[in-house]
Amino acid sequence: MSEPRYRLEFAKGVRRQVERLPGSLYQHVKRLIEGLRQNPRPRQAERLRGASERYKIALGAYRIVYRIEEVRVTILVLKVGKKHGPEFYAEIPDPQPTEE
Length: 100
Hints:
- By secondary structure, this protein is α+β, with helices and mostly antiparallel strands.
- Helices cover about 25% and strands about 30% of the residues.
- The chain has one domain: YaeB-like fold (2-Layer Sandwich).
């Protein structure tokens, strides 16, 4: 496998969000996030409306929300969790990365 093209960073608290996911979902989310390093726009990713370079990946009731930073060649994972309505997206801040 080739070297990852993109660096992977997490907004504050997102690693904890991932670690709290149920067993097999945790493994699936972990693989998907790691895969973003090679392909930041996989087939199942959708661009968020009104948000430049922000994407979501839906996994049933759960979502992975991330931002692609082309200049820095970085994927910043913004939020991972269960979607309970449109406020899920409204509550996503525009943070600076804090964890690698």
